[in-house]
Fold:
Amino acid sequence: MILGATGSIGRQTTEVADRIGTPIVAFAARTPSAALLDLGVDHPEAIVCVVEPGDHADVFRSALGDRAHFGKGAMTEVAAIPDVTVVNGVVGAAGLEASLSALYAGNRLALANKESLVAGGSLVTAALEHGGGELIPVDSEHSAIWQCIAGEETSSIMRLVLTASGGPFRGFSQTDLASVTVDAALAHPTWAMGPRITVDSATLMNKAFEVIEAHYLFGLPYDKIDVVVHPQSIVHSFVEFVDGVVKAEVGFPDMRKPIQVAISHPDRVAIDHEPFDLVGTDLSFERPDLESFPCLALGYEAGRIGGTATAVLNAADEVAVAEFLDGRIPFNAIARVVSAVLDAHDAREPESVDDVADADLWARGRALAECETVTG
Ligand SMILES: NC(=O)c1ccc[n+]([C@@H]2O[C@H](COP(=O)([O-])OP(=O)(O)OC[C@H]3O[C@@H](n4cnc5c(N)ncnc54)[C@H](OP(=O)(O)O)[C@@H]3O)[C@@H](O)[C@H]2O)c1
Structure:
């Protein structure tokens, strides 16, 4: 089942599933796009959920009959169909409820939607424990770590090192960043992704989210999770153990690999692939520049505060990125807006999705107000 089926992760998941012969029981996306309809037509057994059908429900009903389902509740319900792998490629905190639904049902959740863990990490880990299913990361860095620590004790891990490409503005000063354009921010050097994560990669907020994601996935404190900039994106992350041994997962950047690993685990399915040959390739590593890219430090700050602080971090960033993409605030205002919202927040431990939703809503309102002051 693929949630966020029409996006970058969703499209690549369909490709992988079709290629390795995994049947797809359902697709879900937000809008009633032609791409979503085509997926339903091409996969005649699959349910198709349109979260916000608008005036187009009839088009889907007449093409797909009772395989067409509508509304946010429909996506949450299909995620609980028993004994399926749910690939969550929804963008944003909107993916949280479906993640919880899949895990409470005891399903395997192949998680690309890192915002599920950023916004509601403690709820996700509780759902995993309660349902007894599996949580397998799809994010390439976390897939790398997950593969490196298979069979290892958490106590033998000294630290995790997440690699970051550094994005399109690596090496830029704060002054340089003041005038970068939307098109430049969307031109990621190594990965082709949806617009929100691409801008988050340019600010390093994506890496901040990944630090929080790693904290919840692997149960390690923030001082054992480091970030290093590695522009070639060949080393997808590495793990240093207490005996000094270091394991890394490496390969050419291609999201279809971690997607396939998450779907086919514990099997490895043979596919035609480019031979891995690094001869003549220079690999480099450098420390992240926290002065030009303060979002990374904001991620550690929110993570250490805990509770609803990380949901607030995500929601404020979602708003600020949307405002930047619409040309209403400059690139380097994103961090300022998020920082101001985080400073104004009184964090508490969320006990339910409603608590997360309340914090998220508050942060969106506050972020919009902050954006007004930037433009005004
Ligand atoms: N792209 C990558 O290479 C990559 C790598 C690692 C992790 N991730 C993570 O994977 C997630 C998806 O990223 P992406 O790049 O694939 O994003 P994307 O290309 O923007 O696609 C987002 C998908 O989510 C759907 N969606 C948006 N809001 C929704 C809602 N409220 N309910 C249901 N579906 C909704 C969209 O449907 P509509 O098109 O109808 O709006 C679309 O299918 C993000 O969390 C991202 O951080 C992505």
